[in-house]
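Example complex used in Figure S2.
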Amino acid sequence: MLRKENVHFRKTNKNTVVKRVREVYLRNDIPCLSTQCPKEPPCHEVVKVESSLLSAEPAYYLVPDYSVALRYVELLEQEELTNIIFTETILQRLQSEDKSRTYKSLRQVVKDPRRRSVVFSNEHCKETNVLREPDESIEHRDWRALVQTAAWYRRHLHGNTDIILLSEEFKQEDVLRIDDNNAGIAVMNLREYLTKFWPKTAVLHELLTSLKEAILEEDLENKSQGSIIAKKGPSGTGYQEYKPLSELEAGVKSERFFQGVMRVRANHRDQAFIRGDSNIGEIVIVGSDHRNRAVHGDVVVVELLTKSSWVAPSTHISYNPEEVHAAAEDDEQSSSGVRTSEVKPTGRVVGIMSRNWQPYVATLQEGSEKEAGSFHLVLPLNPIIPKIRIRHHDAKVLANQRIVVRIDSWPVNSQYPNGHYVRSIGPAHDLDTEISAILIEHGISVSQTTQGFSEGSLKEMPINTPERPWVAEPTELAKRRDLRNHIVFSIDPPNCQDIDDAISIKEIGNGQIEFGVHIADVSYFVKENSLTDLEARARGTTVYLSDRRFDMLPKVLSEQLCSLRHHVDRYAMSVMWTLDSEANVLTAWYGRSVIRSACEMEYEQAQGLLNGKDVVPGLDATLCKQLKPSVVLLAKTMRKVRARRMAKGGLELESSEVKFKFKEEGGGISDILPKQPLEVHQIIEEAMVMANGYVAQRIYQGFRESAMLRHHPPPIESHFKMLLRAAESRGFSIDTSSNLALANSLRECASKSENDIEFVKLLKTMATMAMSEASYISSGSMGVDKYAHYGLALDFYTHFTSPIRRYADLVVHRQLMSCLLGATPQKTDNSSDFLKNGLKMEQVAGHLNYKNRESKLAQKDSTELFQTLYVLQKTRNPAAIENGGNDPDAEDLPFTETGIVSEIRENGFFVFVPRFGIKGPVYLKEKSGEISIPLSALKQSGGSEGGGVAGNDHLVMISGCEMDTDLMTQISVKVPPHALGSHASSPNVKVALRLKKSLAHRHTIYMTLIGLDHQGTTASADSKLGLGVSAARGRHMKGHSGRLFTKAGEQLKQDELKRIAQQDPSLAPILQRDLIQGIQEGQHKQQEQQKKGGKNVRKQQPKGGYVDPEEAYYQSRPESSLYNLIESFDRFRIVESNESPASFSS
Amino acid sequence: MSRTELLSPEGLRIDGRRPAELRKITSTTCVLSQADGSAYLEHGNTKVLAAVYGPREARHRALVLHDRAILNVELNVAPFSTGERRRRSKNDKRLLEMASFVKQTFEPVVIATLYPRSQIDIYLQVIQHDGGTLQACINATTMALIDAGIAMTDYVCACTAGWVEREAAIDLNYIEESSDTSEVTIAMLPKSSKITLTQMESRLHVDKLEEVFRLAGEGCKQMYEVMDKTIRDRAEDLARKMAV
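Predicted assembly (1390 residues):
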């Protein structure tokens, strides 16, 4: 090793010049990291390095220079560009010039094994180190260093591969001057490079153009910067300069400042919050000035304001997505009216530790395309992101398009961040565009969405064509346990393509039962670190959207070879138990097997068999006869297992999920159906939970430090607040000390209020919301006591049963196999290393958690998208369509539905419509502050079940009402002249679903109140005044209207009417009229309803609760516990399981 | 703003070493003719000069021990040893502490009973500072004592190791030392692998301690080889000269 010293001079704070000497060692052993390294052994094997390797085939390697790396990162990030050699020179320079975001992006590229890109430590390599000559500019020295590196690679690889230097500053001649022997080293700028090698990839060219524009703008700005600052001054926007990093770090350490990830409330965008430490809890940041240029997701440092200026988080429902942009002006006003009792620590952002800027999907502000000039504001689709200023030469092209933008910077003197245009996705509100937007926002990669797998990875796939069908190999068969003589069957939703689990069960005498769970053996086909494996790891999970799915594995595997189809031999990973008659496990066997599924059953069919039918539609009679005993035995056994788990504290939770029925042709949604939970769902779920639990224990035995487990931490006590209050209102107490206590309390509540299923459902939903998020962990990363799964009440849990659609399961399969082979010495290749490396496993777990979460959120977004589409279809006025489709004056058709009040806010409440799983706001107070409720709300609606609304009462607003709410359990409206002191209450309301149309954002559903609906609750709700139904997050409509109509009988109403009239004579006529009309119409409707007999729009309650808590969590996620998630089993992402009375009581 | 990356993902430290590599060590003995024994040692850019006087008559009668010699260590850091010139007072607590560390390290190793009623003076001068001062001082002292012909049971070899980002690394330089790295210095008797000194001033997770210790121990063994070679070369050289 050669030792040398780097000397440089630096000015210190005290304005003295200091000479700094750094010792640097130049090495001979820096590996080239190329698979075509001619040395023997290859130089990257001599030195142990963890890095992806440059591939052997390509025609060239790319070496970007600083100008390219700094300003064209987005281009380098494109997945098309592979085999890039990043030199240490540019990375060091990025770091020293404080471009950590760029640096991180580049590191990300290197990390991604599919990109086959590496970092070459040229500054520490003896042969490529370059000294700066006297009077030489840094740029030139760095350039020489790059040329040296390129030349070194040429020499090292014996000239086998060309090197392309990418530079925007230097030209081919510049190489000549440095190195005479430069054949095979080409210098290109990006434009030349793209034209030569990617002439047809428009995306790259477009991106380059927009980047160039952004750079041009930046340069212009830099030139004129001095004058701007002089003119505007930093005070122009109310933003403040960030404090220096050292001060921030010191402040955070001394607890003067608080650090955390800033999140913006989705339903009130003026407010953001961070989670401080445990002492202080949540810190609220109100208004854009205090937010100080931080964007959702950034890690910020917050200083607390003085106590006197603390505010309570707003309890309003914000009126419109654009509000945040205007919010800066009126935030004083909004904070003045809040209750002092609930003030929270309030702070302002003083510094940013790291930015979390991502590509955002946005739309050009309306009308902006007509304006002159090349600067435009775009509105991000996600309203919690501020408007972004971009530069584009031809805004007309962008009008009404969804485009992807990136934020570049946010100078202190600019109201909005500066960004640049990346690419256009398509016209706004086009279905495909909106879906791509969802995918982009959730970071689901392009390669996954285009379904593409690289040629290399497809080559790895076994062949299965009609001409050459895949057959099991005899040698492989010999190694596997042959279970082909067992009756194996699978139960899945209809038309399931990727069947990853199957079940076998039979009695083996002595009352003993042999029970097997067979999982597709994906790990046999996908070898560790193969291209397919890397791609699958990057994708993490299959993404299911409402109308399509994006696979994790190539189709040949996911739909054919791995999928456990019937009547064909398939490899499987099996877990076989011997159970006694009480379903206690006597022995367990794990291993590879070969199976032949007898039947692909659908849930409905299995349920039919279970219900005692001898033949179910779609299945052969003999097959039914064969399968029926198995299904019945399975149900019997699993009920016992489930009962035992429930007794240990397993939770049954609630969610509302819907599925969409699509029209056969022409697109469009024909209906939204709530999921029908069947007992079979629960049975299959239990079998899978059992397999997962056992496998988790087994791999933990083999991999103490690195087993891939799934844990679910107990919820935070304070999250139960709402649940406790809701239960209290009914006189129940809930013990949240453990999962068992919670489960018991919930069960008790359920049994005591059997006639109010809604209430029980609500309690369960609230319990779901209190849950923490389940996540993958590597067993080494925390103590054994932390592995437990709270929701399922298991000490060990993992995901084992769906390797086709989850990467975690694939890892678990490999770990299990490695455990089973434990005795035989493993090859010392990378693969076994990877499974044993706790640190790496932790990284993978983190990545999978992220992917999992994003895919769930994408799924939720897509559900919402389709829900809005449905409402759009339903409310679209045929007249409007005739008039050319875009007649703004055309009144939407009313679309009325019954819902329950789920959350109360200062100016209205949220209503949940169980029929469609839609939740939306109802505003009682207009933006102007006027409170109004429709006349129809005062009307008896008890009798009317029909879809239509009587007359036009819902359009007549009674103004001048007063409103009061305690924000938790009740909201009451006083109708003028004055309240009469009596009230009725109902958690159920009738609402009209409407769509707030927006160009820039997604359409949002909101609702207007039509009336109260006493259908569900008249039995119980009427009993107590005020507290009656205060069940949950409350829902009291209170006013003299209610009372009138809850009392049965004409006579009573007449009496009431008289009383009102006495108190306020002026109101009498109105009341009289309404009342009579109401009654008549009610009757009329009822009759009509009976005649029609069909279209019942009344809320359909799913029978019993059903569980997919993990889904449930995303369905009903409260803002405050943003990233919590409760776990359960999600089989095909929609696990429904019926809470059958049998298991409930046992 | 960004903190410098002390260990790149490629596994190279800031000066191009890998975690388990020592800096370049050069040493010579017998550099001062006035002193009874002397040594000059470089650990990369850390340069230390050690001079040993004695055993000789004790200065202060009061301190004399009648059965053995007393050790006296004085440590001085040159004002020009760092980039910014900075004069340290003689009573700088850091220096006194470090001197006492050196003294404690050598007390059990020097066979003091052979030299009753006498004193051994060790003067250490740090000429250039680039991290790892204590280890350099101890190593230089060992060589100077040997050069002075003072009886010792074994060499004392010192080495530092610390937890840099995500790995244990050996022989930290100044940049690594000064960016909040946990650092352990140990001094070891290489033949018996006994440890006479461990010093750590920062917090280090107990799980990582073992790895850091192991690495520091290995560093000490390597130090021993380097020092032993210098001593033997010197001895051979002298022997050759005497023979002539």
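Strands of chain B lie at 25-29, 37-43, 46-57, 70-77, 118-128, 157-164, 167-170, 182-189, 194-200. Chain B has a mean pLDDT of 90.
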